[in-house]
Model the fold of this input.
Amino acid sequence: MTALGKLVRTTAFKIVAVYLLVFALFAAVVIIYLARHTQQLVVAQITETVDAEVRGLQEQYRIGGINRLVAVVETRVTQPGSNLYLVTTYAGAAIVGNVDVPTGTLDQTGWSEISYRRQEEGDSAKQSRALVRVFQLPGGFRLLVGRDFEERDRLRQILAQPARWAVVLIVVMGLAGGIFVTRRVLKRIDAMTATSERIMAGDLAGRLAVDGTGDEFDRLASSLNAMLVRIEGLMAGLKHVSDNIAHDLKTPLTRLRNHAEEALRSAKSETDYRAALEATIEESDGLIRTFDALLLITRAEAGEARKHMVDFDAADVAKSVAELYEPLAEEKGMKIALDANAPLPVHGSRELVGQALANLVDNAIKHGAPADAGTKGEIRVIARRDGGRMLLTVSDCGPGIPEQDRARVLQRFVRLESSRSQPGAGLGLSLAAAVARLHGGEILLEDHAPGLCVTLALPARAG
Amino acid sequence: MRELAIMIPTRGERVTMRLLVVEDDHEAADYLKKALREAGHVAELARDGEEGLALAIDGEFDVLVVDRMLPKRDGLSLIAELRGRGNATPVLILSALGQVDDRVTGLRAGGDDYLAKPYAFSELLARIEALARRGTPQAADTVYRVGDLELDRLSHSVARAGQEITLQPREFRLLEYLMRHAGQVVTRTMLLENVWDYHFDPQTNVIDVHVSRLRAKIDKGFGKPLLHTVRGAGYMIRDGAR
Done:
């Protein structure tokens, strides 16, 4: 596309062109109106002059008859820039005057517009237009008085010339302005295009220029920049996740491979081989679990489970999960206190909510403190309603999670230093968070002083 | 180190089953056939959905093991066709898709059980054997008996050697499920599925703790243990002495 073609195709240029057309038409209308009006004024003036002249000559005729009239006309025609005069007999023969008029002009009394030729200038005299009045005198004579349109035409000329220039000027200036404005717009659009191409090529840190004028381009650039910041954040998150996947899947894979190699190299007896193989299976089971959890999170986040959502009682889930983990908690020296009295109707996946809650209770057992001097070693599982939300809360008496780490632990594979020694892949809370989002709810982490209080908040079933 | 002999529990009253494995991955199919033969069963193989359907219609199989994604005819359509023809042979669906909603679709299509790949062979075997037992008169019995242990499903009472044992409702259901499959291996996930109705992987040893509680109630103080741990597989309730 040529530079001009690109320019002409822009929206700004099209708008300029339309405005230009409208303004040119408007200017033309104004000029035409003014011209008409002034012409009417001039014509009115001519009429008045001619009327006065006719009245004067009538008076002369009344006083001195035809001779006096002829004498007066004769003097008048000699004056420069005189009016047009013609006096004829009843038969139509000219007595005195300074014009040749087309035959028949004098047959009709009253106003008419005619072409004429001045007598004294001979045949070379140019034909002009004039407004004339024919008047019948009492003696059968006819009197013609007229005035040239010269004045009107001169005025028209005076007006028409600048008017044409004005229209030309409007068009030229408009076009120039349009091109100027359009080029400015194009320049900014081109800059934006160039930046976005750079960003698409992989430079996610690139930002659009904001020049601080606060115009529409600035606003657009600002919101696009905000979007880029978000995308960059998401990409960083994705990179973090894939780095973690690489780490959390490769570490057990490496161990698995090491076990197999070790067995091949140094196993002496069947027992050694068996132990190595069992370790291998154990490692791969762990890998499968991590994989399953990841897949489950991805599927929950993609919202696929929405197809199979049913109505169920969240309090019932809390009861069954608490009951499932109760013996395990007791074995670890803790106890589970359940508070789930009223039914909490929820529309969703009982299975996923159950698993999310199981993860929370599992975490509470892993990280909570057993009953000893300091704590009661109690894990509280509470199912209650809070307005339109159903809250499933699990709290423990363990060390809790420092406030600055709370948002972070909901991410995939994030394991705080303090829990590195515990089994698990750091996916439990991420799954709970994904399940909450799937249901249109959220996960809340609060201080239980001491300990952690995690709440799975789900919207109540509608209707 | 005889305890290390995992996977295949030795059982007195072993019944040889005729199985059909419909699986397009040759290596997996051959492995299954071999492992099932070692477990004392006879397995036939089909490589695609059409062959599987033809064999399933003609052959008298105890259980069908059907992969979900198959060439020519997918596993779910195979099952639907089979059910449409009035064939009620129990079907275990194998699938790389293991999520809750996949399971629901699989069971709705007419499958009886669903196992996600990759699986432990012991899990597969336990589930196949549990399926084969289905529909046998024992499931309808009102009283289950293993040795001197008695469970009455109507009165919800349990007694061993004539001595009443008090169980929590969940413990009762756990024992009921174990006794319905007496002599068979029952895995942890099978227990979580059938007793608690959850299908997720019990990450920690939650089930083990429940079983040992139950064991303390029904075996402790009585001469002969009935509830056994099958290493690497799960649990089995049986009268060891026969």
